[in-house]
UniProtKB/TrEMBL annotation:
Pfam families: NTP_transf_3 (PF12804). Keywords: Magnesium, Nucleotidyltransferase, Transferase. One of its GO terms (molecular function) is nucleotidyltransferase activity. It comes from Aliidongia dinghuensis. Residues 3-139 form the MobA-like NTP transferase domain. Gene3D superfamilies: Spore Coat Polysaccharide Biosynthesis Protein SpsA, Chain A. This is Nucleotidyltransferase. The keyword Transferase applies. The lineage of its organism: Bacteria, Pseudomonadati, Pseudomonadota, Alphaproteobacteria, Rhodospirillales. InterPro entries: GlmU-like, MobA-like_NTP_Trfase, Nucleotide-diphossugar_trans.
C-alpha cells in the first residue's frame, strides 16, 4: 500500500519557524520526515508526495531521505498549490489506482493509528477517515480543527464551521479510488477541499469513520501547536 502525503501549500502561519514548512526542523528533524517515519513504523514504505510551493527544494530533500532510508518516493507536482488541498490529492490520481493511505505533511500521528486503520476491513468504493471523539482534548484548537458529525460509523457532515459535531478530523484517511470521483464532483460545485470531497462521499453513503480511541495526533499548523508537538515528542507520545 502507498501513502499519499499532501505537502504543496505555503504554510504561512508557521513562517517564523522556517521558510518551507515541510522542512522545518522539529526536535532536529524536518517535519515531513517525522510524518514519514511514523508511516514507516506502521509498515508502509512507499510514498507519493505532492509538492508545490518551493517544490524543487522539497523534492531534493525527499530524494535524499529516500536514498538514506531505502524507501520509494514518487513525486507529484501541483502547480496550483494556492488552491485548497483537494487539488493536491487529485493531482496524484494517475499514480494511485489501488487503495492508499492519505495524510498531511504537518500532522504528527501515533503510528498505531496507521497500523489499526490499514488493518481494518475496507469496503470497496469507500473512504474511511480516522476520527478523534475526544473533542475536549486541549492539544487541538477548537476554532481551527476540522469537525465531523458521525453516526453509526458513517460521516454525516464535515467542515471547520459546522456546529453539530462529535469528532475531529485527524487528517488520516484510508482511500479507494472513489476519492477521486468525489473530488471531481466537489470541485465542479466550487469546493476544492478534501472536506468537500468527504461531504460528497457522505451524500453517496461512502464515507466511513475509524475511531482512534486514546491515540494521539497533532496538527502542527502554527507556533502554539509547534510548541505542543515539541513537548509531545520530548515525552515520546507521538
Amino acid at each position: 500500500m502507498k501513502c499519499l502525503i499532501v505537502a504543496a501549500g505555503q504554510g504561512a502561519r508557521l513562517r517564523e519557524k522556517g521558510e518551507l514548512k515541510p522542512l522545518i526542523p522539529i526536535k532536529g528533524i524536518p517535519l515531513i520526515e517525522r510524518v514519514m517515519s511514523r508511516v514507516l513504523e506502521a509498515g508502509i514504505d512507499e510514498f507519493v508526495v505532492v509538492s508545490g510551493y518551493r517544490g524543487e527544494e522539497l523534492r531534493r530533500a525527499l530524494d535524499a531521505f529516500a536514498e538514506r532510508e531505502k524507501v520509494r518516493v514518487t513525486h507529484v507536482v501541483n502547480d496550483e498549490w494556492n488552491r485548497a488541498n483537494g487539488v493536491s490529492v487529485h493531482k496524484a490520481k494517475a499514480v494511485l489506482g489501488e487503495p492508499f493511505v492519505l495524510t498531511m505533511c504537518d500532522h504528527l500521528v501515533d503510528p498505531e493509528i496507521f497500523r489499526r486503520l490499514t488493518a481494518a476491513p475496507l469496503e470497496s468504493d469507500t473512504v474511511t477517515l480516522a476520527v478523534d471523539f475526544n473533542i475536549g482534548n486541549p492539544l487541538h484548537d477548537p476554532e481551527d480543527v476540522t469537525r465531523v458529525k458521525c453516526t453509526n460509523g458513517r460521516i454525516e457532515h464535515i467542515g471547520k464551521v459546522i456546529r453539530d459535531f462529535n469528532a475531529f478530523d485527524t487528517g488520516v484517511f484510508l482511500c479507494t479510488p472513489v476519492m477521486f470521483a468525489a473530488l471531481e464532483e466537489s470541485q465542479a460545485s466550487g469546493d476544492d477541499s478534501i472536506s468537500g470531497a468527504m461531504n460528497v462521499l457522505a451524500r453517496w453513503q461512502k464515507a466511513r469513520v475509524f475511531d482512534i480511541g486514546d491515540r494521539l495526533w497533532i496538527d502542527v499548523d502554527d507556533p502554539v501547536a509547534f510548541g505542543k508537538a515539541e513537548s509531545l515528542l520530548h515525552a515520546g507520545r507521538v
